[in-house]
């Protein structure tokens, strides 16, 4: 049985236990130990116009199932850091009394300032799920924007160590961080 926090808001702010394991993992992620991979747009699968979508860097921890791409209909571990990140995700969800059954995708994203002020609205997966975003770096601007079914916008404040969660059937996107800032987040999709 799924247990999710009920809220009248689209974006739920979760508590971060700020454990020593979390702090150690964050130090690794923000160091030069993580290999970052360049992406021309935030929504490669939608084939957006690169002149209208933001570039970013990613480190895939658990790759989304994509039978069309590789014939594999299950998520698969893509990083040696997956286990540490999964443990932190579980620790955070347990701390907030949120039960989950399956994690479908986990990613680290790094976005630098862009002349394009907002990325393309998108869904992470074509199935019912929750999205959790953990803000790992200090930056200004760079808010997450979630759209309700009527395209009403809800903004997150996006402060370092904050955690937000929302329904995965709601389109979301991000603003560009301020010049010289790095927006580093961990994103997970789960049911």
Number of helices: 3
Enumerate the spans where pLDDT stays under 50 for 5 or more consecutive residues: 1-8
Task: Report on the biggest sheet.
Answer: 8 strands, antiparallel
Q: How many structural domains?
A: 1
In one word, what is the shape?
globular
CATH class reads Mainly Beta
> Over all CA atoms, what is the radius of gyration?
16 Å
SSE succession: EHEEHEHEEEEEEE
Helix-strand makeup class: alpha+beta
Beta strands, count: 11
Would you identify the CATH H-level superfamily?
Answer: q2cbj1_9rhob like domain
Helix content: 10-25%
Quick description:
This protein has 191 residues and is α+β, with helices and mostly antiparallel strands. The protein is 15% helix and 29% strand.
Secondary structure: elements and pairs:
Layout lengths: L11 E3 L5 H10 L7 E3 L16 E8 L3 H4 L5 E2 L4 H14 L7 E10 L17 E6 L8 E4 L5 E3 L7 E5 L4 E3 L7 E9 L1
Antiparallel strand pairs: 1-9, 2-3, 3-4, 3-5, 5-11, 6-9, 6-11, 7-8, 7-10
What can you see in these coordinates?
The protein is of the alpha+beta class and 191 residues long. The chain has a single domain, classed as Jelly Rolls. Helices cover 15% and strands 29% of the residues. The protein contains three helices and eleven strands, in the order E-H-E-E-H-E-H-E-E-E-E-E-E-E. It has helices spanning 20-29, 67-70, 82-95, and strands at 12-14, 37-39, 56-63, 76-77, 103-112, 130-135, 144-147, 153-155, 163-167, 172-174, 182-190. Strands 1, 2, 3, 4, 5, 6, 9 and 11 form an eight-stranded antiparallel sheet that branches. Strand 7 (144-147) and strand 8 form a beta hairpin. It is globular, with a radius of gyration of 16 Å. The model is unreliable at 1-8 (pLDDT under 50).
């Amino acid at each position: 049985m799924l247990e999710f926090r009920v809220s009248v808001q689209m974006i739920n702010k979760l508590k971060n236990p700020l454990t020593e394991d979390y702090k150690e993992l964050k130090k690794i992620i923000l160091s030069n130990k993580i290999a970052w991979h360049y992406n021309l747009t935030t929504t490669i699968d939608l084939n957006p116009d690169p002149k209208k979508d933001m570039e970013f860097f990613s480190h895939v921890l658990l790759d989304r199932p994509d039978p069309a791409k590789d014939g594999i209909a299950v998520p698969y571990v893509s990083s040696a850091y997956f286990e540490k990140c999964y443990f932190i995700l579980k620790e955070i969800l347990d701390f907030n009394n949120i039960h989950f059954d399956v994690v479908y995708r986990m990613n680290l994203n790094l976005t630098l300032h862009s002349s394009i002020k907002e990325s393309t609205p998108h869904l992470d997966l074509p199935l019912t799920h929750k999205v959790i975003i953990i803000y790992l770096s200090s930056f200004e601007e760079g808010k997450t924007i979630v759209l309700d079914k009527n395209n009403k916008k809800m903004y997150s404040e996006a402060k370092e160590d904050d955690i937000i969660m929302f329904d995965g059937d709601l389109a979301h996107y991000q603003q560009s961080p301020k010049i010289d800032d790095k927006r580093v987040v961990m994103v997970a999709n789960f049911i």
